[in-house]
Amino acid sequence: MNAIEVHNLRKDFKAYSSRSGLKGAFRDLFTRNYKVVSAVNDISFTVKQGEMVGYIGENGAGKSTSIKMLTGILTPTSGTVTVNGMNPHKEREKFVSSIGVVFGQRSQLWWDIAVQESFQLLKKVYKVPDQQYKEHMDHVIETLEIAPLLDKPVRKLSLGQRMRCELAAALVHNPKLLFLDEPTIGLDVLVKLKIRQFLKEINEKYNTTILLTTHDLTDIEALCERVVMLDEGQIIYDGALQNLKTEWGEQKEIVFQFIDQPAIEGLNTLTAELGAQWHLDEKDMSFSALIEADDNKISELIGLVVSAYKVRDMKIKETTTEEIIRNIYEQGVVDIKPAQRETVKA
């Protein structure tokens, strides 16, 4: 069963421009010049119930606009959206009871009242039975370790404390689907780890579907096996995160530390036929070779270097997800058809 079904979804906005001069300003009072800008351009994808999907892209790629259409905040210009078997724009009251939303920069808690009073208000809004609320929220409060915060006004909470309470508030009605927009922004490492672990638990316990939008790719790597990547309002990749690494992790970095420091020119000459690119990190006096991710070439390079120089230490570094995604955007990837879901085209 699919939690989200999106077909040819599009959202256009009118961008108005002002004429120059006093005469232009006067004309603008009666007629305006504008052009139509597509924030989301005919995207299609599905998310199965219980999936945890990373929804990523640069600023202006169309992530927030599409999320707002999925949650019913914006009405699409064209295309269809079905979330939890409902149209988000036509079945509002029933629909909002089936989703939870956490926006890193916005709060759904009341600023001047105690956290638990906000929870009680949300309980009334969503018409959650007392017994169901107690059983579910006792688990949420214990897991997120927010019991000491329940009697505090939201305005007195730190950012990390508030975000844990925001997450708990989004789960008061135990929704089938959770939209998370930058849920760990500005948080320290320990709080991030706590939130990630909690999200894994609710996904396993309740089969909660999670659509995660973030610029912190460590969140994606920790939680999601699948990513949907947007650029200029279009989907440029939809598939397994591991496949993304396989397809685009084209190079590896081999880092050497030598007993006797060699000349970098000598290293370049030694490995010229392998196409390795060397550079020196003067801070820790290590030499790094960037080479094609080919096992035979890597083995040959290591053999050449070890036979020619005395090596103190060596390590092989994988290309990071952040580097891979940056390379994809820089090289201008085109849209992917559904049948090509597991590959990226340049």
Folded structure, characterized:
This protein has 346 residues and is an alpha/beta fold. Among the domains are: 2-98 and 175-245, 3-Layer(aba) Sandwich (Rossmann fold); 252-318, Alpha-Beta Plaits (2-Layer Sandwich). 36% of the residues lie in helices and 29% in strands. The chain contains twelve helices and 13 strands. The protein has helices at residues 21-28, 63-70, 92-96, 115-125, 130-144, 159-170, 189-206, 217-223, 241-248, 264-270, 295-308, 321-331, and strands spanning 2-17, 33-48, 52-57, 78-83, 99-103, 177-181, 209-213, 226-231, 234-240, 251-258, 277-281, 286-292, 311-317. The strands form three sheets. Strands 5-6-7-3-8-9 form a six-stranded mixed beta sheet, with helices on both faces. The chain has a four-stranded antiparallel beta sheet with strand order 11-12-10-13, with helices on one face. The chain has a three-stranded antiparallel beta sheet with strand order 2-1-4. Strand 11 (277-281) and strand 12 (286-292) form a beta hairpin. The radius of gyration is 25 Å and the shape is globular. It starts with a strand and ends in a 15-residue tail after the last helix. The relative contact order is 0.12. Mean pLDDT is 86; it is low at 334-346. This is ATP-binding cassette domain-containing protein. It holds the Pfam family ABC_tran. One of its GO terms (molecular function) is ATP hydrolysis activity. Keywords: ATP-binding, Nucleotide-binding, Transport. Residues 24-257 form the ABC transporter domain.
